[in-house]
Amino acid sequence: MNSVNTKLLKKPEAMIFDMDGTLFKTETLLIPAYDRLFTQLREEGVYTGETPPVERMLSSLGMVLDDLWERVLPGEDKKVHERADELLLENELTGLHQFDTQLYPGTKAMLEELKSSGVRLFVASNGLEGYVKGIADAHHITPLFEELYSAGQYQTASKVDLVHILLEKHGISSAWMVGDRSSDVEAGLQNGLTVIGCAYAGFCGEHELKGSHQIIQSFKELTSLYLKAEEQ
Questions:
Q1: Which ranges of the chain have pLDDT less than 50?
Q2: Interatomic CA distance for residues 228 and 232, integer angstroms
Q3: What is the Cα–Cα distance from 22 to 200, expressed in whole angstroms?
Q4: DSSP letter at 143?
Q5: Chain-centroid distance, C-alpha 31
Q6: What is the pLDDT of residue 2?
Q7: pLDDT at 4
Q8: Per-domain boundaries in the chain
Q9: 10 Å Cβ neighbour count for 100?
Q10: 74, 76, 79, 84: CA torsion to nearest 10
């Protein structure tokens, strides 16, 4: 764990979590759902090419959906992107009950500990509403959160906007933004929050978490950071 800034951290009123690559081990659901998606697209005649490398999809997580599909399927018609969206969500929601999907080790216990310490917990994800809420429901963590926010539900163009809505709606004055993508760092910094970068998913590039106040190598380190942080 990078501890350079630990003494500067202040205990927050709330923590706002990304979902993919932060709480949820995305590849346990995405890889089988992704393979099935492209089989279906070809069967429907919507898409005739090869299945793009799944690494391209994994490295695009955290983007809003329009940008994600432009990266995974560049040059394809918007109708292809929209159908891919629909089928991937269907496969993921079904897969939550068919595949051995996983949260990162210790996630549920750590969330319970933070909540019992009085921290208000939220999710802010660039994913679709059904996907974000489906993961939380399938892994029995929904009751731990005050609310689950998704770009799909609020039709936000960026996570900066989504987090701003969350902060305004709940009257939050201090929070930690916890995530594994540059979009999480940007959302936290532009909203005046402390940013905790998560480096354990393995999807992000070398500079993805640049600007984070602290970088952790496992989710379990978050509780330790909270306990060491100074009172407001």
A1: 1-7
A2: 12
A3: 8
A4: G
A5: 16
A6: 45
A7: 41
A8: 6-25+102-228, 27-98
A9: 8
A10: -60
Name the 3-class secondary structure at 232. Answer: coil
pTM of the model: 0.89
User: Residue 7: what pLDDT?
Assistant: 47
Question: What are the backbone dihedrals phi and psi of residue 29, each rounded to the nearest 5 degrees, phi first?
Answer: -110, -40
Name which of 164, 138, 156 is nearest 25 in CA terms: 138
Which CATH code fits 6-25+102-228?
A: 3.40.50.1000
CA-only gyration radius of the chain, Å: 18
Neighbours of 18 (CB within 10 A): 26
Q: What is the largest CA-CA distance in the chain?
A: 59
The tokens describing 43, both together, are: 């069967």
Burial of 162 (0-12, 13-18, 19+ CB in 10 A): buried
Taking CA atoms, 3 is separated from 7, 8, 52, 216, in Å, by 8, 10, 39, 9
